[in-house]
């Protein structure tokens, strides 16, 4: 609900979340699935997306967020080379273009292909999403990629495909 309509100030909660991310950022500048995990691309991209939302809406957040691309956001290092070159981004197209550039060097990287599939699904590029997710599975079968393909098939009204991917994801659990 919009802060103005609810009458609640979410700024302290948002600031607290950004602070938590800063406190739990790994030494390499990325984030893992847990506070004890090594950094990985998908969790790092998710954290950058959250910080990007804070950064793109300082008035909504109820506090000032620096607008310089190299600035610190509550202690979080925004390094240009961080996580294979990711910068804070609000636009899926930019993130997809950047990840596709990485793909030129890492064409057989199942994790990168799966992340590209997720990004394309979020941008409603259904065909590209399917292609990247299927390519990811061709290099390494994963529960996550099957779940993404199942959700995609549901969105496209392909119930049989969705069930097949849900079943395979359950088998891999």
Question: In words, what does this structure look like?
Answer:
The relative contact order is 0.09. The protein is 63% helix and 0% strand. The longest helix has 16 residues, at 41-56. It has 10 helices and no strands.
Tell me the layout of helices and strands.
Blueprint lengths: L2 H4 L4 H13 L17 H16 L1 H4 L20 H4 L6 H14 L4 H13 L3 H14 L3 H13 L3 H14 L1
Helix pairs in contact: 6-7, 7-8, 7-9, 8-9, 9-10
Key words describing this protein structure:
Serine Threonine Protein Phosphatase 5, Tetratricopeptide repeat; 173 residues; 10 helices; mainly alpha
Could you give a quick summary of the protein structure above?
With 173 residues, the protein is mostly helical. Helix content is 63%, strand content 0%. Helix 6 (92-105) packs antiparallel against helix 7 (110-122).
How helix-rich are the residues, as a percent range? 55-70%
User: In DSSP terms, counting alpha (H) and pi (I) runs of 4 or more, how many helices?
Assistant: 10
Structural class: mainly alpha
Main beta sheet = none
Broad shape: globular
Count of extended strands:
0
Rg over CA atoms: 18 Å
Termini separation (Å)?
Answer: 35 Å
Detail the poorly predicted runs. Answer: 58-90
Arithmetic mean of pLDDT: 75
Count of all domains: 2
Strand fraction equals: under 5%
**Helix-strand pattern:** HHHHHHHHHH
């Amino acid at each position: 609900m919009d802060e103005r309509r609810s009458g609640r100030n979410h700024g302290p909660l948002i600031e607290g979340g950004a602070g938590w991310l800063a406190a739990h950022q790994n030494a390499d500048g990325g984030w893992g699935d847990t506070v004890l995990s090594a950094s990985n691309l998908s969790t790092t991209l998710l954290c950058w997306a959250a910080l990007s939302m804070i950064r793109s809406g300082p008035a909504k957040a109820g506090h000032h967020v620096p607008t310089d691309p190299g600035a610190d956001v509550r202690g979080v290092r925004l390094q240009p080379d961080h996580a294979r070159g990711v910068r804070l981004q609000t636009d899926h197209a930019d993130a997809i273009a950047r990840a596709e550039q990485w793909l030129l060097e890492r064409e057989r990287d199942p994790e990168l292909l799966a992340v590209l599939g997720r990004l394309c699904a979020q941008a409603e590029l259904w065909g590209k999403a399917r292609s990247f997710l299927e390519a990811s599975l061709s290099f390494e079968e994963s529960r996550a990629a099957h779940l993404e393909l199942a959700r995609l098939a549901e969105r496209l009204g392909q119930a049989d495909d969705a069930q097949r991917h849900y079943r395979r994801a359950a088998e891999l659990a």
